[in-house]
Amino acid sequence: MSFVRIVPIVRVVLVRVVLVLVCVPHAADANPESARLRARAYEYALNLDYDEATRQMEAAVKADPNDPSAERGLAAIPWTLISFRRGTVTVDDYLGGVTRQNVGLKEPPADLATRFNTHIQRATLLAEALLRAKPRDADAHYQVGATIGLQASYIATVEGRIIAAFRAARRAYDECETVIDLDASRKDAGLVVGMYRYVVSLMSLPLRMMAYVAGFGGGKERGLAMIEEAAVYPSESQSDARFALVLLYNREGKYGEALRQIAELQRRYPRNRLLWLEAGATALRGGRAAEAELQLTSGLRMLATDKRPRMFGEEALWYQKRGAARVTLRRIDEADVDLGRAVAVESRTWVKGRAYAELGKIADLRRDRNGARAHFEKAVTLCEQDNDPVGADAARQWIDTAYTQH
Known about the structure:
This protein has 20 helices and no strands. It is mainly alpha-helical. The chain starts with a helix and ends in a 10-residue tail after the last helix.
């Protein structure tokens, strides 16, 4: 079987799993000071304080230069910043179609790419050395799996080199399965294995069979259960498992469970304003427009006073989501203002497309059918340009039929 035939599998697996391979360290044998500093670094990173996260992680490396987890952390931060600057860190980016277009938005900043490559190479050398010294040690296999997994995610989502990413992903999966074979109590390793199993289970039968031959296991229920176990297992990857569940519960339509995970993450990381954005978006998908509007309004207040860098197109996304909630609530004039701001500021093209779809609904509610049709047609065009079939289909249904609220 050629690598070309496996490309559709890898596109789905690697880009979907991107959210959970950022920081999956384990501190069993680490220098205690390095582990403490690394934990602080991840807390800062998950609060969007990336500069301080970098300083703490650099201190962790100095405390234990032989710890692959700390070097991996220094690679994870610039990788996250690249996604942040591209505006590709929200659940919406992982619910629709996945093609090369998604992962090739623009070249990463050279300084961030250099930082990633430097530290991932160091982390790989340290992890491989640890595995050679302790070939039957579960944590040694874990360090290799986590490091190779992060590299696979970067190759797929930043560089768009799908075949190369596949090779790395296969090994990451195998190493984490080995961890579980050696130590069944290591539920944190189940995060990576479970995510791959879940995604493989969503494929058509022919693709699923190719994935099995390539070495990826499947099983939707088992995969989800492994991630849920990782979410309650005390480790540094616990929050990553919770983020993964937010994505998967949204895919499964389990919006209440997703909101419960987000609420816990909000409690743990109160400076991460994007959690309020995700809460609002999740509530909106779940038909809870009033709750969505409250979450988004709270988040917009945070955004207004937050002087830290913003995700690319972030302001437009906030206003598009709140505008959509307000359309559902029939707060038409307020929605019109929000959506007007969404299309006026810098944003991803699909965000503008969805904003125009909501403006089309407003036009229909105001009995302006011609204006509504023009907005819906523009929405379809913009969403299709940015590979957003979900948004395009949602707008297309109202081109020839007037939108009405029930």
